Amino acid sequence: MNKTKNLIAAVAVLLAVQVPFSSSAFAGKGGSSKLLSQAIASGSTDAIIAEVEKTEGLMCETCVQMVTDLTEDARYPVREVAGWWFAKRPALAEMLADQFKSELDNGNSIHVRNAADFLGSTRTYTALPNLRVAITRTGLDVEARLAIVRAAGSLAHVDGNAVLVAGMKDRDASVRTFAVKAWRDVLGQVNAEPAVALLADADSDVRAAAIAVVGGMKQLSARAQLEVLVVKDADAGVRRNAAWALGKLGTRESHAVLVTASNDSSGLVRMTAKAALASLRQ
C-alpha cells in the first residue's frame, strides 16, 4: 500500500521514544529480525508464522517494516499473525488501525480485505462502525466481504450484529456460513432468530451451520423447520444436525419425527436421533 513508508516513519518515531532499536538482539522466544527476514524470503506460511511469534517481544524498526508488509500478504494466516504481533504493541496497533479504518471506507477489495483482517485480529472495537458501513459497500469481492464478516466475528460484540446479519444474506455461501457460525459466539447474544431463515438455504453447509446455531441457542421458533429437515433433507449431515438441535430444544412435540429419524439410512442420523429421543424422556 502507498502509505507504508509514511506509517513506518511514524512508527520509527514512536519506537524511538519507547525503546532503542535492535536489529540483531534476540528477544521473547528467540526471534530476531534476521531470522524473520529469512522466513519471509522462504515463502513458507508455517515458517513465517513461527518466526513472527518468536519476535513477540522484539522491538526493532526493521521488524516493524517487515510485519507491516505482512499485513498485506495474500494468505489469511499470515495476515492474522501480523495483526497478532501488532496487538502485542497497542500504541503501534492504534496508529495503524486509524489508517486501516480509512481503507475500509475507501479502499478496493484487497485493501478492505487487509484492513478488516488487521482490525479483527487486533481486536480494534472502534472499527465496528466502519465495518457496519463497509459491509454495505457494492463492488467488493468475496474475499473482502468474508474478511469484514470475519472481523465482526473476531470482535464478537453485539455492535457487529448488523455485519453478521448482512453476511447471512450474502450471495456467497462461504460468507453466509461464516456469518451464521459467528453469530452464536457474540457476547450477550440473546437469540438466533436471524439464523432461522438460513435453515432453508440452498447450500447444505449453510443449513448445517444454521441448525447448529439455532439448536445451540435453543431457538424454539425453528422447531417446525427442524422437524422437516430431520426427515426430508437430502444431506445426511443436515439431518443429523437437525436431530441434535431438536434434542437441544427438548420439546415433546418433536418425538414423532425423531422416532422416524431413528430409522434413517445414515448411522450418524440414527444415533443422534436416538440420543435426542432419550433427552426428551428425561
Task: Report what the structure shows.
Helix 2 packs antiparallel against helix 3 and helix 5 (76-87) crosses helix 7. The protein is mainly alpha-helical and 282 residues long. Helices cover 67% and strands 0% of the residues. It has helices at 4-18, 33-42, 45-54, 61-70, 76-87, 90-106, 109-121, 128-134, 142-155, 161-168, 173-183, 193-196, 204-216, 223-232, 236-249, 255-261, 267-281. The protein has a domain at 191-282: Leucine-rich Repeat Variant, CATH 1.25.10. The protein is built from 17 helices and no strands.
Key structural traits:
282 residues; Leucine-rich Repeat Variant; mainly alpha; single chain
Question: How many runs of DSSP E, i.e. beta strands?
Answer: 0
**What pattern of helices and strands is seen along the backbone?**
HHHHHHHHHHHHHHHHH
Determine the mean pLDDT.
91
What's the helical proportion of residues? 55-70%
CATH architecture of the domain at 191-282: Alpha Horseshoe
**Global structural class:** mainly alpha
